[in-house]
Structure formats: structure tokens, C-alpha cells
Write a structure and sequence with these properties.
Elements: E1 9-20, E2 23-34, E3 38-43, H1 49-56, E4 64-69, E5 77-78, H2 84-94, E6 95-99, H3 110-120, H4 125-138, H5 154-166, E7 172-176, H6 184-197, E8 204-208, H7 212-215, E9 220-225, E10 228-234
Parallel strand pairs: 3-8, 3-9, 6-7, 7-8
Antiparallel strand pairs: 1-2, 1-4, 4-5, 9-10
Helix pairs in contact: 3-4, 3-5, 5-6
This protein binds adenosine-5'-diphosphate (ADP) and magnesium ion.
Length: about 240
């Protein structure tokens, strides 16, 4: 058994690089994320934040370096070198995603949007909707289950996206500018919901943001420049 107090790392990235033709997006980024921790990544536009998030979340493979994902109840996995099929399987089972625009399906109701990830992993629709409903309620959306996304405010739609990122029980949630399209009061409410649904349930959150007030809500903030992590600030 581990005798240290700090929780086990869920993600450990070491010297990760990624280039798009001649553009070096990641030039050797290293970081670690603990179980239940909320980590903010800040940095200028173009500094590599989204690319790093996509590598950590098995959306794209890094060119070199190592990314180890260790979630409870499963063997640790090295993400570098996995093919698209294996990465897709990992994303479906271990990762939740929240983006700036939510990427919700406008023709589906709030409840159907949240149930969708479970249906995609083979759960029958009634069971998926039963599992989805409590997440909507716990995020303040009781009574809005049948509304289409266009009938919700921006903050409500983001809470649907947060519920959807949680419904599979994914141990790690990745959020890219989740409050980028919201005013500051709504942004604070959405952060309440996001932290409740992630670190509040023992899950890890990796969040990219331009907003220092949003980053300050997380346990720890990393700053990126030119594809590297340049400094780290520990909150509290
Ligand atoms: N799919 C892509 N094709 C080509 N260049 C890309 C692609 N994605 C990102 N880049 C480039 O990689 C660098 C880092 O981009 P990105 O990770 O999106 O930064 P950030 O999220 O910090 O704004 C930028 O120079 C960007 O133009
Ligand atoms: Mg970005």
C-alpha cells in the first residue's frame, strides 16, 4: 500500500510533444493530475492548451513522450501509441467532455442528450434515461428534462453538458473553455456545477480557461507558453 497522503495520480504526462506539419503545438509538456483534483490550464491563445487537453483525453496521439492514465479498478494504460480504436474505447469509458459550446444535439431533449453516452455504450434507452435524470436534477434542471437545447439558457445548456460528461461515471472530465461563452455570474454558477459533478464526487477535472476567476476555483493552475508548462500556482 502507498503510505503517502497525496492521492494516486490519474494522469501522468511526461515530455509530450505534438506538431502539426511545421507548427510545434507541444514542445515537451509534463504534468500530473491526482484523483479528485481540479486542475486549470491557462495560457495565451496558441500556447498549446487544447492540444495538450486532447492528448491527455486520448482524442489525438502525441508524437512522443508518455501519457499514463491510471483509473480505479483498471490496469494503467499508456496512451502514446494506442490506435484510434483503442483511444475511442478509452474515451467512451473513462473520459467526460465539456466544451465551450456544449456540443449538445439540438434536436434532442435535455434528458436525451444526457442519456446518449450510455446508449452509445449499449444501454437500452429507458435504463439510460433513468440514469440520466438524477444528474439533471442534481444540477438544478428538474422540470427541464423535455426541453430542447434551444429552449435553455447558455448556463442551463452548459449544465446539461456537465450532466452528460458525468453520466457514464467517467473518472476524468476534460473541459475546454467551458465558461468561454458565458457572463461572469453564469460562469460562476456553471463552475459550481462542474466542480460539484467532478471533484465533489472524487473525479478529476482538467479545465482549460482564459479566465483567472475560473482558474482560481480549481485546486491548482498550470500556465503554458509555446507548448510548454512554464509555471505552476497551487491554490489556497
Ligand atoms: N489541427 C491543427 N492543424 C494545424 N495546426 C494546429 C491544429 N491545432 C492546433 N494547431 C496549432 O497548434 C498551436 C497550438 O494550438 P492550440 O493547442 O489550439 O492552442 P490553444 O488552445 O492554447 O489556443 C497553434 O499554433 C495552432 O495554430
Ligand atoms: Mg484552445
Amino acid at each position: 500500500m502507498d503510505t503517502h497522503d497525496s492521492p494516486a495520480p490519474v494522469l501522468v504526462a511526461t515530455d509530450v510533444t505534438k506538431a502539426y506539419e511545421s507548427t510545434i503545438a507541444l514542445a515537451g509538456a509534463s504534468l500530473s493530475v491526482s484523483a479528485g483534483e481540479s486542475l486549470a490550464i491557462m495560457g495565451a491563445s496558441g500556447s498549446g492548451k487544447t492540444t495538450l487537453l486532447h492528448c491527455l483525453a486520448a482524442v489525438i496521439p502525441p508524437d512522443s513522450g508518455s501519457i499514463r492514465m491510471s483509473v480505479p479498478g483498471a490496469q494503467p494504460v499508456e496512451l502514446a501509441g494506442l490506435d484510434e480504436e483503442a483511444r475511442s474505447q478509452l474515451r467512451r469509458t473513462r473520459c467526460g467532455f465539456v466544451f465551450q459550446e456544449g456540443l449538445l444535439l439540438p434536436e434532442l431533449s435535455a434528458l436525451e442528450n444526457v442519456a446518449l453516452p450510455l446508449m452509445l455504450t449499449g444501454h437500452p434507452r429507458p435504463e439510460a434515461e433513468r440514469a440520466a435524470a438524477p444528474w439533471l436534477r442534481s444540477l438544478g434542471l428538474a422540470g427541464m428534462e423535455d426541453r430542447r437545447i434551444g429552449q435553455l439558457s447558455g448556463g442551463q445548456a452548459q449544465r446539461v453538458a456537465i450532466a452528460r460528461a458525468q453520466v457514464t461515471g467517467a473518472p476524468v472530465v476534460f473541459a475546454d473553455e467551458p465558461t468561454g461563452a458565458l457572463d461572469s455570474a453564469t460562469s460562476s454558477d456553471v463552475m459550481d456545477a462542474l466542480l460539484y459533478a467532478t471533484s465533489g464526487q472524487g473525479r478529476s477535472l482538467v479545465l482549460v480557461t482564459h479566465d483567472a476567476a475560473v482558474a482560481a476555483r480549481c485546486d491548482r493552475t498550470l500556465h503554458m507558453r509555446d507548448g510548454r508548462i512554464v509555471r505552476e500556482k497551487v491554490a489556497r
